[in-house]
Amino acid sequence: MLRASAETTGHEFDLRSVADRSVHPGDETDAALYRFTDALIGRTDDLDDARAALLERLGPRGVVAAASSAGNFEQMNRLVDATGLPITTERWDTAPSIGLSLDR
Q1: Which of 14, 33, 37, 52 has its CA 20 to 30 A from that of 63?
Q2: Which pTM does this prediction carry?
Q3: Domain presence at residue 93
Q4: Distance between CA atoms of 97 and 15, rounded to whole angstroms?
């Protein structure tokens, strides 16, 4: 979905940054979104600062949209994990584009 959204909107985005945070995603707004979502799901401890930085970049509606998207993703991810849905061949083939090397 991320790749399709970027292509549809013409937004330059390095998909490898999804799996490797040492790769810059594309612009400072993307970096602020990563910082916020990483803090939101507990990978870092600077949620307040990350939220403030995102608020400065995107405004209140942008923060709400980012938090809603992250929450929806977490919900879908838990559902997929709980039901044991298999990863399709098509999805395995997209792994390298986001910087993942998966053994089948």
Answers
A1: 14
A2: 0.74
A3: no
A4: 6
